[in-house]
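User: Second chain of the day. Same drill as before.
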Amino acid sequence: MSRHIVRHLARVDPVLGGVIRAAGPYRNAPEAGCEPFQILAQAIAHQQLNGTAANTILARLVASVGQGAFPSPQQVLAAPVEQLRAAGFSFAKVAALKDLAAKALAAVVPDRATLEQLDDAAIIERLTEVRGVGRWTVEMLLMFHLGRPDVLPVDDFGVRAGFRAAYGLRKLPHPKALAAWGERWKPHRSAAAWYLWRALELARAGTLPAPPQRVRLPRVAKRRRAKKLRGAGASSARPRRSGARTRARRRRGAPPRAPASRR
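Assistant: Same format as last time:
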């Protein structure tokens, strides 16, 4: 199956094909067994921390709240805030954990068997209802825990930086432009993202091949700043600057107005 995937990607995108030849076979073995509650709780712990610090906090959570096992939603919901803070969670992460536990008990965050029956869009919609859980976190769950084959995390820095390196761009691609380019990779966008991560590693090692052709990304419409509406009855004439008003008063013989600080 992986050979079919890489042949498809190399055929529809010669630049990515060069990365594939340099990086080797596609390797992504989904992690089985973990429930969505545990996966998301671990993701919350890892936010804005390095792996060692996050794993230390999770070990304290297991020891204090779970009594040696990963705690259940009921245990997290019943745990005092002080106990979670003592494990190393910030107030924001405590609030996120509590919300995750509540939504797991309400079945907004379902068990793994139920989650696997849902499509990608439905999973993203449901799990991002949890406080502190964004689209990127759910996309990582889809790719590395559920093994979904067609996920492209366009907001991921490594994916964007890998694309810039592989395609010889001067700056990071806009997420919308990357998403538009990635349409050609369907239905294997997870594998394409995996190779973009490898492209960044190859670039850092100095072994990334030069792109065989120049790439032009699709244009992305920039959001225009909305113009403020003028109030009813306001003049459409361009207002004169304060200096112009002062000169006009002097021409009419009126004394100049005092600065605001002296009135």
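Residues 36-144 form a domain with the Endonuclease III; domain 1 fold (CATH 1.10.340.30).

User: Great, on to the next one.
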